[in-house]
Amino acid sequence: MILQKKVQMERMTWPEVKEAIRESAGIAIVPVGAVEEHGPHLPTGTDSIETYEIGLQAAKKAGVVITPPVWFGNSRSFMDFPGTITVNPDSLKMYVRDIVLSLVQHGFNRPIILDGHGGNYGIFDILVEDIMLEQQVKVLHVRCWELATMPKPGSVPPYDGHGGSSETSAMLYLCPDDVDVDKFTDSKPEIELTKYGSVFPSPSGLYSKGPAVYPLMMGEMVKDGHHGDPKFGSAERGKDLLEVKINALVELLEALKRGEVKFLNG
Ligand SMILES: [Zn+2]
Fold first, then answer.
1. Which of 16, 21, 158, 236 is the most buried (most CB within 10 A)?
2. Are 100 and 131 in contact (CB under 8 A)?
3. Would you write out the chain's pLDDT as a tens digit for each of its 266 residues?
């Protein structure tokens, strides 16, 4: 029972991976994040660190394989802050496509892209459609931050979002030494949208209401690079928030293992 000992593919030999394909019922998680600014208080790897942790803990609980994470994502609209590294959407799509198809070739016929960054969403929606049409393989694209959530404390401002209280909470729990609590600022958007306005990528719920999608750079919205006030975050809330997401992912993985989500190739 290899998956009781380890779930990280890069820590296995090839015969162990062969065994793991059977034990995991062909399920392998491919975590994808981003390396981009998250305000003056959070490290640039926030999305990838959080996503990998959620995937790893869920893989252990559900007994499925997880691949090494893809650190970089599509962060073009964050490029007005240093530390952001962006990958062209076409390159990202082809890179993740190669990873997924390598898994499929060896018998992981239920790959999951665990996506921890809003700027990647549209890209992987198209990718899973491409793979379905070309390879007759159905890949799940799981939007990590939409897996499940918890109500925010009532005092959290409505513009809370990217780098705000939730991400700060998760990072205070996972790597407190990398959170600069002396740099917490209340970062309020400087742009008011009309009722028609909506922004892509949307850094907070405030910007995803109207039907007209308007592209903006992060620096045009907030000078500090985050939305919200990180002082409303806490390690305790971070622990709970991660647990809720991990449990939701475990539930999904277990349903997949039981064959409750239909797969053409399953
Ligand atoms: Zn983030």
1. 21
2. yes
3. 999 999 999 999 999 999 999 999 999 999 999 999 999 999 999 999 999 999 999 999 999 999 999 999 999 999 999 999 999 999 999 999 999 999 999 999 999 999 999 999 999 999 999 999 999 999 999 999 899 888 888 899 988 999 999 999 999 999 999 999 999 999 998 777 666 666 665 666 666 667 777 788 999 889 999 999 999 999 999 999 999 999 999 999 999 998 887 655 54
CA–CA–CA angle 190, 191, 196 (5° rounding): 160
74 Cα–ligand 1 center, Å: 12
Sequence-distant (6+) residues with CB within 8 A of 183 are: 39, 40, 41
Token pair in block for residue 157: 């401002």
Residue 261 C-alpha to ligand 1 middle, in angstroms? 29
Alpha-carbon span 48 to 70, nearest angstrom:
8
Q: DSSP for 38-78, please give it.
A: BTTTB-TTHHHHHHHHHHHHHHHHHT-EEPPPB--B--GGG
Classified as helix, coil or strand, 14 is helix
What would be the CATH architecture of the domain defined by 2-257?
Answer: 3-Layer(aba) Sandwich (3.40)
Q: Please, which residues have CB less than 5 A from ligand 1, an ion?
A: 46-47
63: left (phi over 0), alpha (psi -120 to 50) or beta: left
The Cα 129–Cα 183 span in angstroms is: 42
Distance of CA 106 from the midpoint of ligand 1 (Å): 32
Rounded Cα–Cα distance for residues 264 and 266 (Å) = 6
φ/ψ of 81, rounded to 5, equals: -130, 135
